[in-house]
Structure formats: C-alpha cells, structure tokens
C-alpha cells in the first residue's frame, strides 16, 4: 500500500508539472520561504488543480514535517505522503488573496498533538484567534477548538503561516453529543443531536424564522445535514418557541437554553470585544435526552475591535448594520445577569489573567514565520509577532477591567 501511494504521488508530481499553466498561478506579491521555526504542512493537489470551490473537495496528498525543536512528530514523507481532500471555506475571508481551507483526511489522525479526527481547517493567523480560543478554554467552554501554528506549502508554493484548527462538528473529540441521522423520521429522536449556527449570511442548509417583529434569524443546520420534513418542522417550531419565550418578559426561555453556557459565551464576546458575537458564527448545540437544553458554543471566528470600550459590544452598530440576536433581551433578565456575575467571580481575575503568559508563549515562536507571511502576501512588515502580542494584551486587559466595573444587573 505504501509503495502504491508513493508511485501515485510521483505520477501526480510529474503530471502536475506538465499541466501547470499561468492561468491558475497564485497571486505572488512577494517571494518568501519556510522559516524553519515551525512545523510545515506540504499539500499537493491532484493534477496540481487550483482550489476554487468552497463546496467541492478535490483529491490531494499531504505530509507534515516537524519543527526543529522536535515537539511534534512528522506525518508522511516526500516519497510516502498521506491522502486527503481539500476545499475552500469562509465568507469574506475567502475573497482575499490568501485563502482559508477545509481539509478532510482519509483516516482519522491526530495532528500536531491534537486529538484524532478526519476534519480540520487551515485558517489565516491572527492574534485574536490565539487569545479567543484560549479564553474560551479558561472560561470552561470545554468544546472550544484547539489550534496549532503551521507553515503551508501548496503545490510547491509557500503560502505562509496558518493555524491548523479543529473544526466544529458532532463527534468524538469535538462536540461529543448524540448525532441524529440525516432524514430522521422517528419523532422520539429529533429533539436532540443538533448543531446549528446562527449567522448573518444567507446560505445553503438554512431555515429562516422571525426573531421578533423587527428582524429575522438565519439558522444553518450543520448536523443533521439533510432534513426530513418532520425535522425541518421541529427545528422551525423550536426556534420560534425560543424567540417567543425570550421576548415574553418571563423566565420561559430558561426551559430551552442553558443559562450558564450563555453567560460564559457572553463574557467571552465582551472580553474579546467581538463585534460579530451574537449574529455571526454563533453556534448552539443540543444533546438528546430528558432535560437537555440548547448550549451556547463552541466559540468560533473570534475577532477583537481594538478600541476603547465604553459599552457592551453587542450594542455597538457594526458597519453592515446587523442586529445581534437575543442578547439585548437576555441582559434584562435577572437570572441571566446573576449567572454572568457568578461566572465572572469564578474566572476573574485569577484564571483569565493566565491569558497574558499564554499569548507571549504562543506568539513569540511565530516571529520569523509571521514575517515571512507578511512578505509573501504583501502585508505591513511592521506588524511583527511581538507587536501583535502587545496589542492584544493591551486591549484584553482594558476590556476585562471595563467589564469588571460594568457587570450587568438586569431589570427583571
């Protein structure tokens, strides 16, 4: 089998060289190469095909070379790479020159010390991702994805620094809950096993329900992927009932939503000052069983506003004028606010202050790779890893101090 893979791989390399043409050449603002300071992931697509679709995977082979410090073992080799598939991913991020990718391995594999799975993402690096995912873990959001920095060479082209990231999906080592079948028709099995994403894009696999009399809510169902009529009806009815309960000025909404998980999610968004917190990449999941409620998270797509915080982030108008869902009403409820205060007392200052050393320890080794990435993609070379680390620490500290002085009190 290994000899077979090696022969196929060598054939692909020869074919790719003959099939390559300028039409599919990537945009190259600058010349750069691997830094030698991080693990390197080499990916070669079948026939050197460009990755142009966000929905269709193409076949490829990969190998990962460990870093010089020997912290991670290599996977595959130049003569014996491992099979995989790859496609594009993202919304606005897909429009840039540097693309994010979704990858699917042939076999479930643990990459760079992370738990084994077939499904991964290669995301553009940012100090916000480093801080946000770790803050999620410090806040006790136990299904928060892990990330590892890696440099990537795609079809022989160095495409810079990426964060190899666990994706959000139901399964072992990810969101470990019951997973209901696609097209399920048994009414006893459709009240749990859900993973959905409330988002600000119109996309496939969505239902749209009214949140209140003023705006709608786009709900993308990730699991199950294909709904039977009974599943579709249940999901629409469920979220209409949740919306009605939240806006009823009563505690009825607590029958549907896990209050503490929503409190932790709220704190994460406010500490990060994430403008997309309650209207973009807002994940919820629900297990199957008596008393199971919708749980907020896992956290995803975290960014930082890098501003002087003077109010709750969800109250600020964002440039595309999208209204955050639920939180403007939830913050009026005493039970929700009490839970926020209780969680805050649990994590601040002690546990959350661990983030500063983590940022230094995680970002410092990226100095050379981030510099090469800036060269490769024509970005500002003054935005060094050290500058990024100091910036995110400054704003996180300021955001935490502001929230500590302005914890919500509630009206009901």
Characterize this entry briefly.
This protein has 412 residues and is of the alpha+beta class. The chain contains nine helices and twelve strands.
Q: Which class do the helix and strand fractions yield?
A: alpha+beta
Cα separation of the termini: 66 Å
Average pLDDT, to the nearest integer?
91
Fraction in beta strands: 15-25%
Q: Treating each run of at least 4 consecutive H or I residues as one helix, how many helices?
A: 9
Major beta sheet, specifics? 7 strands, mixed, barrel
Kindly report the spatial arrangement of strands forming the biggest sheet: 1-2-3-4-5-7-6
Poorly predicted runs are 1-26
Helix content range:
25-40%
Q: Give the C-alpha Rg.
A: 22 Å
Give the topology string: H per helix, E per strand: HEEEEEHEEEEEHHEEHHHHH
How many domain regions? Answer: 2
Shape call: globular
DSSP summary, beta strand count? 12
Question: Can you describe what's shown?
Answer:
The structure is a single chain. By secondary structure, the chain is of the alpha+beta class. It folds into 2 domains: 165 residues, no CATH class; 174 residues, no CATH class. Helices cover 29% and strands 20% of the residues. The protein is built from 9 helices and 12 strands. The strands form 2 sheets. It has a 7-stranded mixed barrel with strand order 1-2-3-4-5-7-6. A 5-stranded antiparallel beta sheet has the order 9-10-8-11-12. Helix 2 runs antiparallel to helix 4, helix 2 packs antiparallel against helix 7 and helix 4 packs across helix 9. The N terminus is likely disordered.
